[in-house]
Amino acid sequence: MSLDPVQVMKGQEPTAIPTPTTSNGDSKGSWDSSKDVYEHIGSTKKPRSAPVRRARKVEGGIFFPKPENAVTIAVSSRVLFRTEKEQKVFDQMGVEEYLRYQMEHENEPFAPGPAFPFVKALDAVNTKLRELYPESEELFDIVLVTYNHAHVGIRLINTINYHNLFIERFCMTGGSSPIGYLKAWHTNLYLSADAEKVKEALAEGIAAATMFMPGKQTEVSETQLRVAFDGDAVLFSDESERIFKAHGLDKFFEHERENENTLLDHGPLKGFLELLGKLQKKFYAKGHRLDCPIRTYLVTARSAASSGIRALKTLRAWGLETDEALFLAGAPKGPMLEKIRPHIYFDDQMFHVEGAAEMGTVAAHVPYGIAQKHPHKKSSNPSK
């Protein structure tokens, strides 16, 4: 089974929609939802009545941290919300009709997308950080990044208010690439539905991943942010993966044994784990180690005895740790992730992303390293 960004997995191949020149989201393409199809095209039906908007409630004083002091998460509109219907209008009827449709429906909120629970969890952590450190600017700061025209901003703002999200920073590029703005925002993580833009961000040294909608919705914690990482080519470099691809399993194990005291180089998401750890320590300092609202996981197909020690020594030397480490020795990751129930899981191999999504986990692909040239087959690969 193949998996496209924001395509709901229901056991069928996704239907590709022709590539437009600009988009309401992050990708130059889009995907159908089997049930949620634009029902007004070619008809005279009136738009659905607008729901009652709820005011966003924030306790205490409100201030906006400087981007350089915050942990800045840039999230695209197409992964924060479900916009397949609007994309279909754009593809079939063009930009002018698309803008007209958006303005006519600007009081109808978008439904939550795959990044929505993650963003809600970030806000929950911020609430607890403000209680413990009222003057601190070390918070998660969300930037909504979209190719959309500014006319669509009203609907996005109405949706954010409806869902009680705390998002005040917008970047609406009107069809232009947002990559240049990411550095200006001091972005620490970029989540998008556009794989090419994610690759561009990674090339600029920005942690980034392409998000996917799971086929079934798994409940996640509303009080604890849970983030799960693959090891090689995500937290670590793809050095060991290259050995495996070039020389096979035996050479991989030999290489890891010979180099168990040699640190692995960093991967694209090492900095994000580092920032999560920094915020965790702020809770530990106030006596909240056991009930910390941030929990991290290493989920790797490395085997513990044969190749796990090097990964753990590397994390320790970096001054980092994950709350839990699962060494699966090539076993499927989906069932373990189903038990963890992370808000997001990062992996560099689509094989594992698909397996996680099929089990209900919101998974994100990190298109980095040698695995992008040699896609993973259905054989065990312990370097992952």
Largest sheet data? 10 strands, mixed
Number of helices: 13
Low-confidence stretches: 8-60, 378-384
Helix/strand-derived category reads: alpha/beta
* Total number of strands: 12
Q: What share of the residues does DSSP label as strand, in percent?
A: 5-15%
Instruction: Report the end-to-end length measured between terminal Cα atoms.
Output: 20 Å
- Helix share bin: 25-40%
**Average predicted local confidence, pLDDT:** 82
Shape designation: globular
* H and E string: EHEHHEHEHEHEHEEHHHEHEHEHE
Model description:
By secondary structure, the chain is of the alpha/beta class. It is built from 13 helices and twelve strands. The chain has helices at 77-80, 84-93, 95-104, 116-132, 153-162, 179-184, 195-203, 239-247, 249-258, 270-284, 304-317, 334-340, 350-358, and strands at 71-76, 81-82, 111-112, 140-146, 169-172, 187-192, 208-211, 225-229, 294-300, 324-327, 344-347, 363-365. The strands form two sheets. Strands 5-4-1-6-7-12-11-8-9-10 form a ten-stranded mixed beta sheet. Helix 7 links the parallel strand 6 (187-192) and strand 7 (208-211). Helix 2 runs antiparallel to helix 3, helix 8 (239-247) runs antiparallel to helix 9 (249-258) and helix 12 crosses helix 13 (350-358). The longest helix has 17 residues, at 116-132. The protein is globular, with a radius of gyration of 21 Å. The two termini are 20 Å apart. Mean pLDDT is 82; it is low at 8-60 and 378-384.
Q: Which labels suit this protein?
A:
384 residues; ten-stranded mixed beta sheet; alpha/beta; disordered C terminus; two-stranded antiparallel ribbon; 13 helices
